[in-house]
Every structure is written in C-alpha cells, then in structure tokens.
Amino acid sequence: MPVLGGLWAPDLGLRDPGLGVGADVTVGVTADEGPPSPVWGTLGTPPVTCGGLSLALELPALIRQLRAAWRARRGGPRGPERGQASAPAWVQRGRVEVEELEPNAEDKSTQPAADGRLARGRAGVLLAERRGSYPLIDLRIFNTSVQQGEPEAGSRRKVKRQLSFQRYCHASRLLRGQVPRAPGSLHLLDDNYLGQAAHMLSKVGTWNFDIFLFDRLTNGTSLVTLMCHLFKVYGLIQHFQLDVVKLHRFLGMVQEDYHSHNPYHNAVHAADVTQAMYCYLKESKLAEQLSPLDLFLGLMAAMAHDVDHPGVNQPFLVKTRHHLASLYQNTSVLESHHWRSTVGMLRESGLLSHLPLSTRQDMEQQLGSLILATDISRQNEFLSTFREHLDNQSLDLQQAPHRHFILQIALKCADVCNPCRAWELSRQWSERVCEEFYRQGDIEKKFDLEVSPLCNQQENSVPTIQIGFISYIVEPLFEEWCRFTEPSLLSQTMMGHLHQNKTRWTGHAHPFSEQPDSEEEGGGGGGDNAGPEGIP
Ligand SMILES: Nc1ncnc2c1ncn2[C@@H]1O[C@@H]2COP(=O)(O)O[C@H]2[C@H]1O
Ligand SMILES: [Zn+2]
Q: From atom 17 of ligand 1, which residue's Cα is the shortest distance away?
C-alpha cells in the first residue's frame, strides 16, 4: 500500500503540470445540472432516460433534420404537401424511420456532386448529400481521390464530415441490430457486411479477434461500434444513466480525432487496445472485483489513450519546439495531450454533465492517471511496483486504489500487446508501427534533424526493432501479468504467441540461421497451437 500510495497521488500532480483538473473543471459545467447518479452503487439502477431520446430514434431524427434542410434549400413542395412543415422535428420520427428505408425517394434533385462534396443551404445549414453507394464507400480510395483532385482544405473538411455522417448512420443501424431489408435500400453486400460484423461482435472477447477485418466490415467505425457494444454488454448506459445521443456524440468525436493517415496510431489501434482491455477485464482474477466505474474508466481510457496522436513521438515534438511540448513542459507530452483532449470532448459532449461535479472531477482524474500510465518511458516505474506487489502478495482488489493500479497495468499491457497476437495480426501491427517510425525519420532527414532511434529505415529493420521491443518491453511486462493471472488460459496463449513471434522475427533478422518459418514448426511449446488449445 505505501508503494501504491506513492504512485497514485503524486502521479497526477507530477504528470499534469500546471493543468490540474481541479483548476479548470468548472469551465462550461455547472454543479447543479441534474440529479446525482448512482455511480458507486450496484448495477441494478433505473432504466436509461436518454434525455428524452432513445438510440432507435436518434438516427431518424438526424435524417429528418437534414431532409428539412434540403427542402428549405429547394423551396420544394414536398414538405408542406405531407403536412410536416409545421410539425415539431422530433414528432415526425416514426414516419422518417420508414423514409430511411426508401432511399432517393424524394431527393433526386439533390444528387451529390460526383466527388461527394457537401453544400450549404439557405440558412447556412450544412447539407450532407448522399452518394450512390450510401452508406458503404471505400474511404481509403475516396480519401485518395479527394486529395489528388481537390486539395482545398475546406472541401476536405466537408467531405470528412459527410463521411463521418455516413459512417455514423452505418454504425447506428448495426448497433440497433437493424439489417435493412427493403429492396434497393442497400446493396446486398452491405447486409452481408453487417451480418458478419454482428457475428464478430458475438466473439469480441476472444484473443484472435481480427480488428482489421472488423474495421472493414464496420466501414471504419470499429472504435465506436466496439465501445457501444461493450457499454451494452456491461450495462454501463443504464448504470450511469447516460444519454445515448451524448454518448454517440462523444464516441464519434474521439474516433474522428484519431488520424486515419497514421499507419499505427489511428482509431484501429485504439479499437485493438480496447478489445484487448476487454479481454483483460474479463480475466477471472479481475472480473469479479471490478465495479461499474472501473469498467467504464478502463474502456474509456483504452479508447481515448492515443487520441489526436500526431504520428511522431515526444522527442520529435521537443526538438521541433512544438507547442504541445512547451504546454506540457516536455513531460508525458503526448499522453497529457490525449488526456486533456479526452476531457475536452467529455465536456463538449456533455456526456457526464448529469453527474455531480465531484464525481466528474474524480472520473477525469482517474482517466488521466490511466492514460498517463501508457507513457512507455515510465515502464520501469510501473514494472517494479507491480513486481513488488506480486512478490509481497500485497494487492487487495477490494481496495479501489489497488484496482486502479491494476487497471493501469492492464491498459499498459493492452497498449503493447500486439506482439502477443497471432502472427498474421501481430505482423501487421509491427509493420505499421515501423512505417510510422520511418516516416518520422524521413521528416527528420528532410529537415536536417538528428534521426531518432528506430526511425532510420536503412539502419533499423523491422525484425530487429521487433526483437528489441519484445525483449525489453513486452516480455518483462507480460511475465508479471502472467504471474498476476496465475497464469490464465489467455496469458498462456499470449505468451505462446509472443515466443513464437519473436522466433519468427529472429528468423527474419538472420535469414541464414536455422529458425523455423512455418506455423507448425515452432516446437518447444511456442507454436500457435502450443500451450492451451484453442483461444479463450
Ligand atoms: N510492435 C511494436 N514494435 C515497436 N514499438 C512498438 C510496437 N508496438 C508498440 N510500440 C511502441 O510502444 C508504444 C506504446 O505506446 P504508444 O501506443 O503511444 O506507442 C507505442 C509504440 O511507440
Ligand atoms: Zn497506444
């Protein structure tokens, strides 16, 4: 406990220089916004009120607003003909739900420009015009053509908003369990995608979950879709009496603020870490002890832990005198930014605005402590504390600070678990992270800066980076995690993958050595199928 105490309290003060949550928490927030929520109670709380809107009503209402804007712009007769013009927007929702399944029934005159640009209506309302393949489009190809054909920043932003809306519609349907069946409403393939994504969600707690495939099936909304599903699984919406509209707004903001052009630090990495975190929260050593607040914070921290990552590391920000480096005094610069951005989005979305001020402050602080723990330069600090606890058997998960410490460790494990995934998944993450390193190195070379360690493609190969990362970061951490879980089936599976992957990278690093290269040849308990059979 003394060791833990040392980690817990000073951590927040030290790592949030000059930006203590208490100092600015009242900005935009009032203490008397709503009744207290049973944050600390059990899961048996009243049903969700959702601020007067249910999830099932949210999408139709949005569509209705957009259509109203289209009609206003055209001055067309359709609205008044239907007797809808004077009706309050939210009253019409049942009818709009039907309209949703009749694409292009009324907006033929507002077909989008070929490049899917958005237009503005009379009142300056942003108009999103659906593209032919609504809602599924290849975002990557589309992005590329936009960049090549239309470099203007304003247009790109508009396109991004439209894509965001389309992705939102898609995810929203999936989460409501709706696979649209009306002929012509969606291409047949879309049904297939949605069905497969839903099927994948039913196995979200398995270690071989393919987040890349899930992201494709959900049209780039893996993070939002996953989070909504896990919140549902744990009953967190009911427990915290969350407004589902605000929840979607918050999750959407976080997802959007990941940079999709980063090879590694993008929303799929966040989704991958969240899925791993869920697997760890399910560990029997932990699952029975965790409170709804622990689950909420653990998932939120995993989701947001790298938000708005610029694709370069802290040393780069420091040596280029980036404003974030000065803002956070060159200490945990990125992690502080991820945390403060998350707090900003929490407040902007109003997700927690119905909770008492002190509860919100506590949640923001704990989120900070979790996200800041992912600073890889603090690995030894955490590892030695963890070891000490395990050696002394001093962890008492009935105590909230001890559970918080384990959440920090679990998040750290989730953040660097990619070498513990099956080879095909692990290899992709390795290549992505190295690609990001190399891009940074290329920028450094271009601007005559000293090339950062691991960022020189000519000197640092993917296999050597991987072997070093596994040996110095991943293995020591997971050995302790294994000890903590005693070891669980999942831990054994992860260690099996880790050893096999290291073996394979060693083979790649020394192509003339005698290392086996096929799945079956691992031998000695390191193979994909070695250790525990199957995937937990
Ligand atoms: N497979 C990997 N190889 C090398 N470095 C990695 C790998 N996976 C994660 N990392 C690094 O570990 C860091 C953990 O925190 P971040 O996700 O911010 O950034 C991560 C990368 O810098
Ligand atoms: Zn990360």
A: 415
- The span from the CA of 110 to the CA of 127, in Å, is 10
Going by the DSSP 8-state scheme, the letter that residue 48 receives in this structure is P
DSSP strand pairing (119-120 vs 126-127): antiparallel
Listing DSSP states for 401-425 in one string gives: HHHHHHHHHHHHHHHT-GGGS-HHH
Angstrom distance (rounded) from CA 300 to CA 371: 10
Rg of the chain, C-alpha, whole Å: 24
**Tens of pLDDT, residues 14-30:** 333 222 322 332 222 22
Q: Is 335 in the pocket of ligand 1 (CB under 6 A)?
A: no
C-beta of 332 in contact with ligand 1 (< 6 A): no
Domains of the chain: 23-39+209-415 (1.10.1300.10), 56-207 (no CATH), 429-479+490-521 (no CATH)
For ligand 1, whether the C-beta of 258 sits within 6 Å is no
Q: What is the DSSP letter of 129?
A: -
Q: Which amino acid is at 536?
A: P
pTM: 0.68
What is the distance in A from the centroid of ligand 2 to the CA of 269? 7
Q: Is 265 a catalytic residue?
A: yes
ipTM over 0.90: yes
CA of 220 to the centre of ligand 2 (A): 18
Given a contact cutoff of 8 angstroms between Cβ atoms, the answer to whether 382 and 6 are in contact is no
- pLDDT tens-digit profile of 186-199? 344 567 888 999 99
